[in-house]
Batch of 2 targets.
Target 1
Amino acid sequence: MDKFRRKLRRRVVTAVSAVSALGLVVGCGGSDGGGTGGGKKDGKVTITMGLFGVMGFKETGLLDKYMKENPNVTIKADIAGDEQTYYTALQTHLAAGSGLKDIQGIEIGRAKELSDTQKDKFVDLAGVAGTDHFLPWKQSQVTASDKKVIGLGTDIGPMAVCYRKDLFEQAGLPTDRDEVAKLWEGDWSKYVSTGKRFKQKSKADKVAFMDSSSGLFNAMIYGNSQQFYDKDGELIYGSNPVVKDAWKLASEAATSDLTAKLRQFQPGWDPGLANSTFATTVCPAWMLAHISEKAGPKNKGKWDVAKAPKGANWGGAFLGVMEKSPVKKEAQDLVAWLTAPEQQAYLFKKIGNFPSSQTALEMPEVVDAKSDYFSGAPIGKIFGAAAQEIPDEQVLGRKDGTIKDIFSQGLTLIEAQNKSPNEAWKTTDKRIEKAAG
Amino acid sequence: MAISTSTPSDGAPGAAPPTGTGTGGERQRRSTLLHRLDVRGAPYAFVAPFFVVFAAFSFYPLVYTSWISLHRVELSTLSLMEWVGFDNYTALWDDDRFWNALLNTITIGVLSTVPQLLMALGLAHLLNYRLRGSTFFRVAALTPYATSVGAAALVFTMLFERDFGMINWMLSLVGVENVDWENNKWAAQTAISTIVIWRWTGYNALLYLAAMQAIPRDRYEAAAIDGASRWQQFLKVTVPGIRSTIVFTIVLSTIGATQLFGEPLIFGQGPNGITGGADNQYQTLGLLLYEEGWKNYQMGRAATVAWAMFLLLIAVFVVQRIVKRVAARKA
């Protein structure tokens, strides 16, 4: 009898602790994740921003300027260096409904996925006054099927080829940017054959012609309106001749030992820039800031920019406002101001991020811009001309960003792991199926 | 008797002096009940916070994860779940990425655990000598453990860089050509193991040291009298003396190795970190979980990997128990 009672009591105690545990769980689940960090207090407005890479707003003092013009506004910007890391965190925050900022940057490779699956969490920016100045295709990239606009455009990425004059000279190639552009005019395969010439004649053994084959791959596919997906959102990378051709040429460059076997924006690439281990890199406008920073003052004037064989757009970003933000109105004003033509032109001048605003593209400070670091190259004209060649319709897909990463890795398999292009394609195919299927 | 039955509601202890034998017995019974509740119940109350936290942060997620693993669900749309039964599990079984990750987890685990524990043992033995500034050396041994995984892995990544890393530079001094640490499977796994070894050796050494100091001095003296050398003393006195601690560290390290995640993630950086290299050459189970969940955003498949890891740990535990029992029976 006593034994039984003891047993019973033990059960009661266990039950009580279990119930209180449950209460704790329910207590956690019940509360709202709450807010986005910003808010209003005593007439003061705080706006938080989540950004990535070098978007330039903080770096060039634009945010400070805005705060000076609007003394009641404080802006706190959080900048993640790596976009992949940033986007993973953003996805997690969106799913959890907490940890978001008032304003979130959106990379082009993620635009479709966000406007397809998360548009309810973003404020509709379609009606914001004074935002009809963008390139027509730019805004369409963040417009959902119901015409909701989840972000305003910052920059775009028209592409050119950045090259080292001194290394070209050593290899007996022309150094003038117009003549260099003629070497590969109209056809990316001529860029690769120039590389073979470079390799034969170059005296510097340790210098490769290009940094990575994935840069070439990106440049080739982004010159077309359809890449990995078709207009209906179906995956077509396997049958799209654009992708096939780019893969073929990029793997040819990789197997001909023309690359430094580096991965752009990954460890090794920056010291490669600083120590001149490669002579060219396909560069969208926004990459110039990175190159000049990492290659450093000692390489100033050695770099130049030549027109690419074919105009293409790599990258670009948008700024979206979160529906949850307690300062939606103020955040919209800030986004509209940051993406206005004047600011876009200013950013281009300061760090080379190319405007997505048609108005800004026609402003003299953009058209006549030259880069000191890149031997005074008329970057306004070169990238402006490339921007004109970008197809007006650009089909984005949900997993564009991820698929681009998988292709880069596929090329690394050939470049650094000695896999055959066929084998690497098979692996890539399987991985995309896993990631996007 | 009528009085005694009406008292319980207001009968606070010491409120009224005992008036009769009947009420006295009642009170005594109640106070012993309280006493027994105190004795038997209090321990449960004291351990309850742990179990509450355990239930909230371990048990509930465990159950919820198993629920998710039976669905097809994406991170961005967690509210939309599609029931797929055990499809995720069969798909994982057929997935060579899983077997590759499992194998990598084991090889990196062995590569990092074995040298780590051996070095810790040696280090602890040295620290056990009387030496000047012993506290300093003990603290120094623990410093790597106090460093964050992120910082340590980042620094090592720079050291192991192919073109301009310090390790390749030092190797070049002795005529070894540049090693592509990241892209070569065994080089990458060695590099990652180095980070783990660097971080955990000192920690394990201190555990060993604590155990060694509990070994009675006279055993050493007796051994010395019998003519045992330092090395023989180490083998015959020290190691048997800390056997249970060694088992403990092996268990800890095994669990740690199974969950290996931060070091390889940062070692590869960016997309390559998540997939454990372009060829998945150093993708561990932890990374595979992360890739499924936070790169492919397939939470169902990620949850399945998590459960597979959990079941594996249980399997390892069971095998260890069986081995132990068999060994005991033989002895």
Target 2
Amino acid sequence: MDLIVTATAQGLLWGMMALGIFITYRILDLPDMTAEGSFPLGAAVCAQLIISGVHPLTATAIAFVIGALAGAVTGFLITKAHIPGLLAGILTMTGLYSINLRVMSRANLSLLGEAKLTDFFTRFNLPSQFDTIFMGIVLVSSLIVLLVLFFKTELGQAVIATGDNEKMARSLGISTNQTKILGLMLSNGLISAAGALIAQDNGYADISMGIGTIVIGLASVIIGEVIFGNLSFVNRLICVILGAIIYRLIIMFVLLMGLQPNDLKLISAVILAVFLALPSIRTRFNLNFFQKKELL
Amino acid sequence: MKKMIGFIIGLTAILTVAFFTSSNEIETMKKAKPMVGILQLTSHPALDLIYQGTVDALNDAGYIDGETMTLDFQNAQGDQSNLNSMSTRFVSRGAAVMVGIATPSAQALANSSQEIPIVLGAVTDPEGSGLVESNEAPGGNITGVSDLTPIKEQFSLIKEILPEAQTIGILYSSSEDNSIVQADQAIEIAKEMGLDIEVMTISSTNDVSQVGATLASQVDAIWVPTDNTVASAMTTLVSAADSNGIPIFPAVDTMVEEGGLATVGLDQYELGRLTGEMVAAILNGESDPATTPIRYLDEGEIIINQEKAKQLGITIPTQLLEQAKQAE
């Protein structure tokens, strides 16, 4: 029971990261590796600010803005310097490593005993982890509302159109370069803010905490899609969050089964591979125990 | 859509039940057999030896897995997103004592519980990492063993073996706090001894080969701190240094066995044993983390890799050889 609570709390926080991945990977159709740099960037910026006395909410918001700037760099490299998307992301991610070290001025910043965003909920004397859950629900639902509102605007529709068919979007007079940069900024802002939240939840920011995050984000997006099928835009965003929770539940389950800890990475890879392969297995064998779905 | 709503309703139901029942679950889960949770950051010889030492010392103190205690060992394999889940696993299973091997795992444990005693397996500077109030009087639920190496003795050893050496290279990974602490101390010590220092950092094991070779071409010897990343790629560093005929003086004994020349090292296994002893003392109710100072290994021992010395054409002073332990 306790473990489900923890998985939900963790999933809500990682869900925010997954929303960022969803924007680049699904909406813009651009695998963006910047995430592995902007995630610890958010953690670093937020931790450093909190330690110097800034309010955690302000610190998290600043982490969002700084992360968006990192996304802008990748966007610039792709659109203006014409560097392929994957490579541009890797370049920014690599550069961010040094920047993150500069921001933290060491490799690991402790937040034990410092103010945290969840402190607001602690005053209600909730059972353990529920402060994170309530904070997560508030943050994630307001984010989903904001994202839905944004993607309904003309600008938001232009971002979607760019991802769907860049040539057509351009012929409609959309400046696809700008929309791409915007999408990347939004995505990395979210990822960076998620990094800030997870640093507060973990009690530290560490230079290596970005490793493997992109897999977690992708897994959340894909698990959500595969399990819940083809849905409207709002529901797809909700599914990303549910996917993040389910991913955490799976990892928790694997840990509980008492498997060799050394096999954990292999197991996560196999889980992800299974979920990625499920749609084609389904079509191949005409199985319809899952709803039919179509990906963007 | 139906499935999604179903999932959300199911999850909410479980959370609601948990919300009203979970208040003091940990207290009720205390068992006859105490559970010890050990959380290790990643696998490499030094950390593995600490783990081994901890378990052996616990066994010697009468705590045997499956008989007089339950041992739960988790290894995050360097993926920090798992540290949190693993820590919660310990807490929810009602761990009596938790052991964190390497700084991030210790921090994850510290964040998951303010009550369960936590013993640090190998944290260079517990106070600097914010884990304890002070190394002498930790104050909270955390105490443990520091792996701060006798850097001064190591530099004296370099002087003794290579009296001619003037420039010493320092190689460490910029992603590790513990290394930066040690490197800063080493630079101070080298200055006092009148040595010149060339510092280079790596960001992952992939950099070791090139950075190692570049550094080796500029210095008379290389000193390496207790560093998880360098430790993982020690053999790579050794081959890079070998091609320049430069000896490596690592801070850790396992790194001498892997091709370093010599060190005044902390026996990682002994560090682990010290950790295990502290865990046993807490399990016996003999000690309270808040008032138990951080412990250090009293003295390092000289460890020399003679095969490497022969290969590099370095003669080790005989009186040094007599008091040294041979690396295999």
